[in-house]
Design goal:
It is built from 11 helices and 9 strands. By secondary structure, it is an alpha/beta fold.
């Protein structure tokens, strides 16, 4: 297999792709980043491809980023939002997807609340599947755009120290980031309240800290997660105010460090909870770069998987 081809026809999770795949996605995203900064931002690359965006959970950022990526590549898109659909009437996932496939769709971008939903689909239908988030399991394109944004800022990721801060227990971003960063050779730490750190997380080869100041001293990059109250059916923290007191990152904490660190956040930010506004808007933050890079990285994934599709046809 040439290094110009993905090792898999789907993006089900970072767990299922190789370091070479990640490097190839990053190189391809470099080219697309140049495209989206041109006055005419479109290329005809996916003109014959139809992509269905299936969102069984609410999402604004990820869905808009994928739609933009698809439009920049001139793909045809079908958008399906489950909250207003037959799923409410009891239709199964497979039935829903097969109905959409009868419209001659080539690729599916899906967000689903059930971990493993994408893997299940990949065994039953013959289209490229991109995981846009499955429950609290994985969110591979977010990890790729995070890794890409780090590489853009610090160069080689190998040997860099990255701390992931916050609600590790409910976060698909954390798991995908850990897989991605470990494959790229970074040292990874997770930091948050003990109730929000999974018991066996050390098995993934990460350090654990419950002290935010210690974690910031240790790291080169802090990727700060949103506290996901909508996923918590019991209270894992006494209150947002208390979380903010012990784990919120404030400008004074960064000023006390004897080095500059990079602050990232997958968005949307709860300002004043995970990050104070003066941190979110500071020169430390690359949050807006992450948003821009999200489109380039998703273009790269769509393009590379469409290539796998065309190779399969010939």
């Amino acid at each position: 297999m040439s290094h110009l081809e993905m090792s898999t026809k789907h993006l089900l999770g970072i767990k299922y792709i190789t370091k070479d795949d990640i490097d190839l996605i990053f190189q391809t995203a470099d080219n697309f980043k140049e495209v989206i900064n041109r006055p005419i931002k479109k290329v005809p690359t996916l003109r014959d491809i139809t992509v269905a965006n299936l969102f069984f959970e609410n999402s604004t950022r990820t869905r808009i980023s994928f739609e933009l990526a698809e439009k920049r590549l001139s793909a045809d898109t079908v958008n399906f939002s489950a909250s207003s659909s037959s799923v409410k009437k009891g239709e199964t996932l497979l039935d829903t997807v097969n109905n959409i496939l009868s419209m001659k769709v080539d690729m599916i971008v899906m967000r689903h609340p059930a971990p493993g939903a994408h893997l299940f689909l990949s065994k039953h239908i013959d289209v490229n599947i991109i995981n846009a988030g499955d429950g609290t399991h994985e969110h591979p394109t977010q990890a790729l755009l995070d890794g890409y944004s780090m590489r853009e800022k610090v160069g080689e990721i190998e040997g860099k120290k990255v701390v992931i801060v916050g609600d590790i227990l409910h976060s698909r971003v954390a798991l995908s980031n850990i897989f991605c960063l470990k494959k790229l050779g970074a040292e990874v730490m997770v930091c948050g309240p003990p109730t929000l750190i999974p018991k066996h997380i050390k098995k993934l080869g990460v350090h654990v800290s419950y002290d935010i100041n210690e974690a910031l001293k240790w790291c080169d990059i802090a990727n700060v997660l949103r506290i996901q109250l909508e996923r918590q059916n019991i209270n894992y923290i006494p209150s947002l105010r208390e979380y903010s007191m012990y784990y919120g990152i404030k400008k004074s904490m960064l000023d006390r460090l004897d080095k500059d660190i990079i602050i990232m956040h997958p968005g949307p930010i709860n300002r004043g909870v995970e990050l104070s506004s003066d941190v979110a808007d500071s020169e430390h933050s690359i949050i807006l770069d992450q948003v821009e890079n999200g489109v380039a990285v998703r273009m790269a994934v769509l393009y590379l998987l469409a290539g796998k599709r065309n190779l399969a046809k010939t």
